[in-house]
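Course exercise 7: structure representation. Students receive a sequence record and must write out the corresponding structure in token form. The form below is the worked example handed out in class, using MarR family transcriptional regulator (147 residues). Read each field label carefully; the graders check that inputs and outputs are placed in the correct fields and that the protein name is recorded exactly as given.

STUDENT ID: A-19
EXERCISE PROTEIN: MarR family transcriptional regulator
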Amino acid sequence: MKQTNIFKLIHAIEKMNNENIIRFTKAFRYPLGISPILVLAELRLQGPRKQVELAEILGYTKGSMTNIATKLVNLELAERLYDESDRRIVRLKITFKGLEALEEAKAIGKELFMEHFEVLSEEEIKQYLTIQEKLITGIRDKKSHEP
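STUDENT ANSWER:
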């Protein structure tokens, strides 16, 4: 019985995630998914970074990171900075346009979540928050025990 409920939960989470992706993609004016947006957020937070560093931090392959960086540069949301002393060292930097796109993405995401959660009562929100916090703690505990 427990396994059946877990599979139902997984299916429900996947349906909600897919719906969020579709709605976000329709609302966002740039042809980007979540991965490039996470790159922009990291660049805003940490400043210019080498692509290999971004790939490692965000868990992307080098090839994926190259594709993401190229897309961001082509859309003028990021730019490549070449090191003056060693032109082989290239960092990706978020542009002003990238900062604006990131803010737009956050606003759309917030709006989508507010729409989802408005159907819940205050008590249901508290319960949901307790469950989410428990799941996050479990993930962190497992990470801290990894080699």
